[in-house]
Amino acid sequence: MTNEQQRLLVFAGSYAEAEENGVYVYAFDEQSGTLTLTDAVADFKNPTFLNVDADRKLLYTISETVNQSGIKVGEAAAFAIDTKEGSLRLINRKETVASTTCHIQRDANSRYLTVTSYHGGMIGLFGITEEGAIGQELDVKQHVGSSQHPERQDRPHPHSSFYSPDGRYLFVSDLGLDRIVTYRLDEADHKLIHHAEISLHPGAGPRHLSFHPNGKFVYVINEVDSTITSFTYDQETGQLTTLATVSTLPADFKDENSCAEITVSSDGKYVYGSNRGHDSIVVFAIDERTGALSLVQHISVEGGHPRHFALTPNGNYLLAANRDTNNIVTFKVNKSSGQLAFTGNSVSLSKPVCVIPVYLTM
User: What is the pTM assigned to this prediction?
Assistant: First the structure.
């Protein structure tokens, strides 16, 4: 925290028709754990996933549009954030890749955006202008192949992209291929260079990943078979090595479930994952020497289908976005045990998919 006055704002993306509100801004009260709506933006179809550049007070979102041939394609938009008002102002919007997208990521130096197309099986690299606008298309990488599950894995389905802590590598979890594909970011030619890939067990369906703050471990949540796989990470070579896989579910739970989001606490002690079906957050303690996980808790998300969740920057709260019950629910984090407790607070909005709490200077 600096001497400058800061405000904790929470940004949410959702499934929405273009005429409906789709991107929301909330002020977060850290004493009570309550959310207060300060702005909502319409005119974008399914602005589901967001990325926030706190330093430059910029927000990026994906959405869907139709190209000149009438085909559904990806779109991205950039907004300026007014911290005091808790409001958004559109900078620009631009078509991205030749299919709808599910994820957007920004490199640490805020020079590039990557968009991920689950249905199109591709990753797109785009520039960011000096003003923070969506810039030109620089590269597109098309995945090929399939894996075990006849419906979910009949073709490539990349679901996310995450940069290594030093920004040299981009890790793409491909649910359809049961692989994590690693690209090297060539900043001279502004291209993604295929660097490596690692296979998970068949039928895993990797979706999102999270780096341990020590940079030595990576945790991937597998959507299809409700597991988390841990890896060691070699920062020099950019290589992942598989450690172990654990279930995200209680042993006696036999109904349908799929996983969505994963994050490691900023102190590196705990990893959190979301279950859709069991409708819970699972908490594991991390052995910081070996990276091994041990179960701490399953807690109800007080709703249905937790598509995404996030810890506040200071780690005091966790916010869960429940798509099917149209709410974002607030949990208090016990930082010594890692356990979550429902605060009794939630806010209603239509089909939330992504929630991002960020400190911004006033």
Answer: 0.97
